[in-house]
Predict the structure.
Amino acid sequence: MQNFSTNATWIKPVAQAGLIAKGIVYCLTGLLTLFAALGIGNAKSGDANKGGILKMVDEQPFGKALLGIIAIGLFCYAAWRIIMAVKDTEHKGTQLKGWGQRIVYVFSGLVYGSLGVLAIKRVLDKGVGGGNNRQQLASELLNKPLGIWLAGIVALGMIAVGIMQLHRAWSGKYKKYVQEAGYDLKSRSLLIKSGQAGYTARGIVWLIVGWLFMKAALNSNAKEAGDAADAFKWLQDSTYGDILLAAVALGLVCYGIFMFLRARYQPIHTN
């Protein structure tokens, strides 16, 4: 049996499957949001959350099988992120900054692993809860001593994530994912454009989600907090909302494409 600490070649296909599954989720989110912006079918911006995406897949021909495949991919992504943290395959080290990045890997793995669990529940006809996780979090924080301050700190954290996503987009840091790989000029151009658009869209969504959470904190009203679907709805209700929503939706599709490119070109470190 291959030792976990050695050069485990099986990690690469696991990582690739995970990146592809993540790309599918983002492409579906972007398409559903784009349909809402363009008024296509019965799509609504408020449906572009985890439950809405899984429901859309489930309603397609062979939907259960597709959900099962996506779930397996999401579990692969979760496993890869946790391996990155435990084995330190990206060589972040054991300093404070390194541990911080490794904790982010674990958190990311848990998030996508939980989405995989939701997909499996729908495959098994267990249903997917429609509750707003951020409203639940805001409610729990606001009911604690100094709850307003705690909720405010969480909101600032979300806003900081949005700023970091925008910085990653416009500083070009996202290019590091494939800088060691060999790819042609056409692929490089697609990589640059899709990555920049994708991280910009993610940054905008995180900023809006953070702002909604901050409003919930300032007004001591958990119902004002919202997830990505609420951020999309907020965008659509603003001036030139459909145009802004369509732009963000296309950006999310681009992020999905960027995940596909990472699966194809990114060197996957295994030790």
